[in-house]
Fold:
Amino acid sequence: MPTGLEIYKLLPKTNCKKCSFPTCLAFAMAMAAQKVELAACPDVSDEARQKLSASSRPPVHSFAIGPASTPLMLGGETVLFRHDKRFINACGLAVSVAADDPLDEVRRRCREISRLKFERVGETTGVDAVALRSTGGNPGQFALAARAVAESDALALILQTPDLDEVRAALPCCRHIRPLLHGGRGIDLKEWGNLAHETALPLVVSGASLEEIAEKTTTLERAGVRDLVIDPAGDCKDGEMVEMLTACRRLAIARGCSELGYPILVQLTASTPEKRLAQAVAAVSKYASLLVLDECDPELVFPLVTLRFNLYTDPQKPIMMTPGVYEIGNPGPEAPVLVTTNFALTYYSVRPEVEAARAPARILLTDSDGMSVLTAWAADKFSASTIAKALKESNVEALVNHRTMVIPGLVSVLSGEVEESTGWRVLVGPREASGLPRFLKQCWR
Ligand code: SF4
Structure:
């Protein structure tokens, strides 16, 4: 990424403010910090646009595969460590399906894969793609299997076959979902590159070493193929994979080696379920953009979606809920009102306890910038005035026939002030969410 001054030199320097920044220099600094895109300046020259878009490409090229409605974004990474800034596009998970299985079995596997969903802190997540695997020689069957995957629900597709005729036969059925072409190590680079260029589809580049991969990506780039995925770990033994992937990502980000600046694909090769899980965890952590699993096994997928969820959140932004009223169990007008902060983990700690109590209730989340209860209280983000504001904005008064709220036991000190500023009676709840079922049974009137 160019510096602010390098960007500034290429801007019109008219300080016209059309970009909402007071000066071109301020805009340049914001662009260098990746807070704004060049497109926000309508007056930039074509020459400057060309220079800046080439140099502002992230060290790991970013593009999408899969259906336009639910694209699977790959790459776009700019840092080696999450604490340096943040990771951008979470590692996609794909499951292998054999193309020579009977079509009903291919459809059944696709249904099984697309139904395997988990909810993590309000987000639904699961497997993202199918890797349709063939050893070649049967274009008709491969095309039918590709059609079956393309018709399944919102899954991306990797066409994993060394047979170019199979790929050509499959493309009319699945080109609209932008499949990833994966021919393996021995492909004819010219033929596959031509197909990827003509169809504008992404292509996987494999090799026995990083040097070989870099040579191949250079050749393909010259042939006009922009969207590449690299597979540098194919031959790695247990324990070598992380070293290889780290070297690859380090060269791309820290050394500016654009030949290796592409999303990385990893195929699980370990022999036992325990080793496969360890290999998958290592790949998601460092630095796979796409991981191909053999099985759609919930015991393998669940830890991986949890891990990637944790890795790919922005460490500078708390995970937060939208402030407002959340109803649990169809509450009537007499149901309790539990007030807390809008930190997602607070909400997802309180909610299951209320559900476990089988006591319909309303949880009122205040706007506390996504902080937990004690942190928000200490920062004056969870106070009598923010609670009063939340009561007013949510209009919860209209939903209940009482004026009693429960506040977390950790901030019992707020009770008097809240009663004064809201006119509501305040019950001090338990210090931990786990105490709510008992509290609701014994203390709520
Ligand atoms: Fe400068 Fe462009 Fe912003 Fe105008 S719109 S102030 S020319 S950066």
User: Anything to note?
Assistant: The chain has a mean pLDDT of 92.
